[in-house]
Design brief:
Elements (H helix, E strand, L loop, with lengths): L3 H15 L7 H7 L1 H11 L6 H7 L13 H18 L6 H19 L36 H6 L2 H29 L16
Helix pairs in contact: 1-3, 1-6, 1-8, 3-6, 5-6
């Protein structure tokens, strides 16, 4: 499965696209949306919270790719965060904020589906609890990490290559998201309501 590095960069890139309409040069746009990008990076990694029990035991994959890697879990967490946010900041947590949460957190599942999986069960329980049968894409677009143990994670030379691929692809995705919205803003695209992170949402 992909690491938090790639998940976080993709989440930030999606946030850059959804927070478009800043109407400022790229550097200013990134400064204005930095809190949103950081929040999106964290949200995109949430399903990997199931690493924590394995981290405690010294075997990362012990509880990985289980309930937190399902559509039902993403829906529950996204709606839960949205309801809490709406209770305290109703203006900022409108319908677009809920869509933002669903897309950013859900991106984790999409990425894991197209990432190589080299240990059973192969895939993620996408439709749990209705079905616990693991699901994965027919083609893997991203390589897997060696991470059965903390020692393997830190000591595998192959992981440096995987990290390089994730960093490269993730930075390109983030830059494309931010740069694309900057170009649209310069062309006079009307500003859109923005997202959680100090900005407004419809």
């Amino acid at each position: 499965m992909a690491s938090p590095v790639f998940h976080g960069l993709v989440g930030a890139g999606l946030a850059a696209v959804m927070a478009g309409g800043a109407g400022h040069p790229l550097a200013s746009f990134l400064r204005r949306t930095s809190k949103t990008l950081a929040a999106a990076a964290v949200l995109a990694c949430l399903p990997d919270i199931d690493y924590l029990p394995g981290l405690w035991r010294g075997s990362l994959n012990t509880t990985h790719q289980q309930a937190t890697h399902s559509v039902a879990w993403v829906l529950l967490v996204a709606v839960g965060i949205w309801l809490v946010g709406r209770a305290f900041r109703p203006v900022q947590f409108g319908r677009r904020a809920l869509l933002f949460l669903l897309i950013v957190i859900g991106s984790h599942l999409a990425i894991d589906l197209v990432t190589q999986d080299r240990s059973a069960p192969y895939g993620i329980p996408l439709w749990a609890p209705v079905s616990t049968t693991p699901v994965r894409a027919l083609v893997a677009l991203l390589p897997a990490w060696d991470k059965a143990t903390l020692g393997e994670l830190a000591g595998s030379g192959r992981n440096l290559r995987v990290l390089g691929i994730e960093l490269g692809a993730g930075v390109v995705f983030l830059a494309a998201g931010a740069g694309g919205m900057n170009i649209l803003s310069k062309r006079g695209r009307p500003g859109r309501p923005s997202l959680p992170g100090g900005q407004h949402s419809a």
